Amino acid sequence: MIIVFNKYQGTGNDFIIIDNRTEIINPGDSALINRLCDRRFGIGADGLILISASHQYDFDMKYYNSDGFESTMCGNGGRCSSAYAIKEKIAGNNLIFKAIDGVHKAVMEGDIIRLQMNDVHEPRLINGNYFINTGSPHYVSFRTEINKIDVNSEGKTIRWSEDYAPAGTNVNFVEVREKGIYVRTYERGVEEETLSCGTGVTASAIASVLAGQIDTNPVSVITKGGNLSVSFKIDGKSITDIWLSGPATFVFEGMIKV
User: Fold this and answer.
1) Is 60 helix (H, G, I), strand (E, B) or coil?
2) What's the half-sphere exposure (Cβ side, CA atoms, 13 Å) at 238?
3) Which of 72, 161, 250, 252 has its CA 20 to 30 A from that of 128?
4) What range defines the domain where residue 179 resides?
5) CB proximity list for 11: less than 8 A, separation 6 or greater
6) Are residues 79 and 124 in the same domain?
7) Pseudo-torsion of CA 25, 28, 32, 33, nearest 10°?
């Protein structure tokens, strides 16, 4: 079987996107999805996204980490899925799609995709560090000189900590800078540092304001793969009207025999 795919990246967080509205791929075939994401024996990506048909919305987004298994919400994946849907005329420049954590709006403004994230309720402090679920669970730790941190080693230890058992957590190290924050993220399911993580950037931005580290809104965020911004409102113990904004870039289209 020949599968047509698109490759997209959002600030270095890269994805294979496949139009699965005719169900050409079995969503439960984790071995195939893992092989497609393999950077040596497949196409190579942090994750794979299936665009599925929806009766209520423009499309359904099913996101899989590179380990082959369906995961929780992916912010950069949602932005790249929106850019893909607009390019392929599946949706217009203002669109609505459903993901595993619920319904999301997205808007294309020039080369920027703005994605509305779901509300965050009752962020917690665990051992002095923030734990915030932005569609995916995220540990946020404020540090200095984070380029000196071994993100894969320390991130793996925290990811499997008993505090976050049994599913584990994504891990973000955040450095406060003059005009925003710099974030490095260890992603569960990918099991290493990625160049950017949309839900992690969102959690880090929220934590930076809650902790009094940043007093601007939107929060400007630097990642290894590029720049993003996060805007939101704080309403008591809830964070509402959350928007993740940044570029979502088409890389190439190809075909692969499976």
Assistant:
1) strand
2) 6
3) 72
4) 120-246
5) 76, 195, 196, 223, 225, 226, 227, 228, 246, 247
6) no
7) 90
Task: Give dist(CA 50, CA 64) in Å, integer.
Answer: 8
Give the active site residues.
Answer: 74, 197
Summarised one tens digit per residue, pLDDT across range 160-193 is 999 999 999 999 999 999 999 999 999 999 999 9
Q: How far apart are CA 54 and CA 97, in angstroms?
A: 8
Q: What is the CATH number of the domain that holds 199?
A: 3.10.310.10
Q: How far apart are the first and last CA of the chain?
A: 5
Cα(134)–Cα(200) distance, rounded to whole angstroms? 8
Q: Could you report the per-residue pLDDT of 89-118, keeping only the tens digit for each?
A: 999 999 999 999 999 999 999 999 999 999
Per-residue pLDDT reduced to its tens digit, 190-212: 999 999 999 999 999 999 999 99
